[in-house]
Design brief:
Blueprint: E1 7-12, H1 20-33, E2 37-41, H2 44-49, E3 53-56, H3 83-95, E4 100-105, H4 107-120, E5 124-128, H5 144-165, E6 168-173, H6 180-189, E7 193-195, H7 203-215, E8 221-226, H8 234-244, E9 250-254, H9 266-284, E10 290-295, E11 298-303, H10 304-309, H11 316-325
Parallel strand pairs: 1-2, 1-4, 4-5, 5-10, 6-8, 6-9, 7-8
Antiparallel strand pairs: 2-3, 10-11
Helix pairs in contact: 1-9, 5-6
């Protein structure tokens, strides 16, 4: 690959996240400012392998930053996990004279990017786009803020029904391995309890909270459950509670993939724009095999290896605060 960056390619991979389009827009327009040619790759790593490249000009990315999803499409590629698949992807890059890559995605995307960068010495910079907010090296990932706001809007509506019928609603939000969405949704909605993968409340503690609510005359409650809660999702938790406290009128709501869609919030649009801009600047300054993130409101580059291997922990102060405010 040439040491001089003249042509770059950008792609989105893994689960879609609101704000990805804003990041693509920032990449294309920043590259154009520096007189670089930008190619959009359709379909993530599968698109790299199949050489699905399309030249993108600044006007091609107009009127997209408010849109959810990704105009470049996305996928998860089993073929890219093989040496043969990565060789085909590299051959595609060479055929189009691509000097650098910008990958927008999450942990799986960056794992593949790290291996690819090491094998073929391709300069790659990652932009964290995942609603889970679980990547080390950035305070926020693109899509997280929108996802929390989407979940919060749904929970606010569920609260009306819970209050009207004196019911206990168990609301399941995304978060298979991380509780950031559940924690922030729970705090923002004033939930009675929040169950997360990292340090989820034990069953007896939840039973105690709900019994105390009943004792003081509060017959409705909201319990936010991350899908990766150690002792089960919302359905299982609700059944355990119903069995233990039969007098409670229990209901379950699973928000699911609603959290992935929709127009990105202002925060996500600005975050995506900043990171897209910095990704191009980073390539031009010789950075590679790194993810660009936001730490203390300043952009920071973190090696892929560290970003995917290090654990990003929830703020225990927020966990404690949530318990106190739910009294």
């Amino acid at each position: 690959m040439s040491n001089t960056i003249k042509r770059i390619a950008v792609f989105t991979s893994g689960g879609d996240a609101p704000g990805m389009n804003a990041a693509v827009r920032a990449v294309v327009r920043t590259a154009a400012y520096h007189n670089l040619h930008t190619y959009g790759v359709t379909g993530g790593y599968e698109g790299l392998i199949a050489a699905k490249f399309n030249r993108l000009e600044p006007r091609d990315v107009g009127n997209i930053m408010h849109r959810g999803g990704t105009i470049l499409k996305t996928s998860r590629s089993q073929k890219f996990t093989t040496k043969e698949g990565r060789q085909q992807a590299y051959d595609s890059l060479r055929a189009h004279s691509i000097d650098g890559l910008i990958a927008i995605g999450g942990n799986g995307t960056f794992t593949g990017a790290h291996v690819f960068s090491k094998e073929f010495k391709v300069p790659i910079i990652g932009i964290p786009g995942t609603i889970d907010n679980d990547l080390f090296g950035t305070d926020y990932t693109i899509g997280f803020d929108t996802s929390v706001n989407t979940a919060l809007e749904a929970v606010d509506k569920i609260r009306d029904t819970a209050d009207s019928h004196d019911r206990v609603f168990f609301v399941e939000v995304m978060g298979r391995n991380a509780g950031f969405i559940a924690l922030n949704t729970g705090i923002g909605s004033g939930a009675s309890s929040i169950l997360i993968p990292e340090n989820g409340m034990e069953p007896d503690a939840l039973f105690d909270v709900l019994n105390k609510n009943i004792h003081r005359g509060k017959l409705f409650s909201l319990v936010i459950v991350a899908e990766g809660n150690p002792w089960g999702g919302a359905d299982k938790v609700a059944k355990l509670v119903q069995k233990k406290i039969p007098k409670i009128d229990v209901r379950v709501a699973i928000i699911g993939h609603l959290q992935r869609g929709g127009s990105p919030t202002a925060f996500d649009r600005v975050l995506a724009s900043r990171l897209g801009f910095e990704a191009v600047e980073g390539l031009l300054n010789g950075k590679k095999d790194v993810m660009v993130g936001l730490v203390d409101n300043k952009t920071k580059y973190t090696p892929f290896k560290k970003a995917i291997a290090s654990e990003k922990k929830v703020d225990e102060t927020l966990v404690k605060m949530a318990e106190i405010l739910a009294i």
